[in-house]
Specification:
323 residues; alpha/beta; TIM Barrel; eight-stranded parallel beta sheet
Length: 323
Amino acid sequence: MEYRQLGNSGLKVSEIALGSWLTYGKTVEDTTAEDCIRLAYEKGINFFDTANVYEQGQAERVLGKALKDYQRDQVVVATKVYFPMGDGPNDRGLSRKHIIEQCDKSLQRLDMDYIDLYQCHRFDSTVPLEETLMALDDLVKQGKVLYTGVSEWSGAQIEKAQAITDRRGLHKMISNQPVYNLLQRYIEAEILPVSESHGMGQIVFSPLAQGVLTGKYKPNGEIPEGSRAANKDISGFLNRYMDNETLEAVQKLDAIADQLDLSLVQLSLAWILRNPGISAAIIGASKPSQIEENVKASGIKLSDDVLDEIDNVLETIEHVRKR
């Protein structure tokens, strides 16, 4: 496993991180989740990402329990705040009240004294940005949070937040967590350069496009049983990837991977990590064997010829071409 600094901070994280969205505390039994977390640590993953809203706190509980086996200073734990955690008017968003209260509750569920990276899960246009940023800064000053970041913020929102941070002398946010993969590249136009100008690293999620970049879905083929596309509760996340044009391109990418003696998963992760603005790619794993395969992508360097070949395939996909 190789490690990168998270943005311009001194924090070093594994290139491959383990997430818990749609898996731990829900579709994966707790014992299997704990096996995945332990194997990830043994394979060099030190970065574990979750959120309070994932199964209303259950994912945090599962993660915290599994990480009890290891020294706290050897792991980097990230969680998030924003989405509703109750039915009350103050049980959501990025108000000072919600941030402070939810940080304490996340710490209780994780059974930890501090959170390494506390992230605003989305932007909240209903709350003054100064209020949000000052609440986060107070958590850092109190030692409950070491670093702060955001998820799925626009370039303009990041610019505005960092300007306030500079003006008020607050602790700077060090990361953004967006979707990024071979089939969804919107961050390249604005968010990557804006983030880099402010010293923020990207922790990208959905690096395998919800499983499409494993090659399991074939053009005009049947949906495999047990796959995410077969799960009606979450299949909507895959709709943008499931047209034949995209799936045919994925088969071509699989052929490129095969020529390099890589799996499509490893090629997809290595392609993401080619970019120095990416600090880590967050994988999801419902069984240990997936971690075994994914961690092998760390350190793979793709030649310019291979990158050009990949771009030629991607240019055939309409929604990628219009990114």
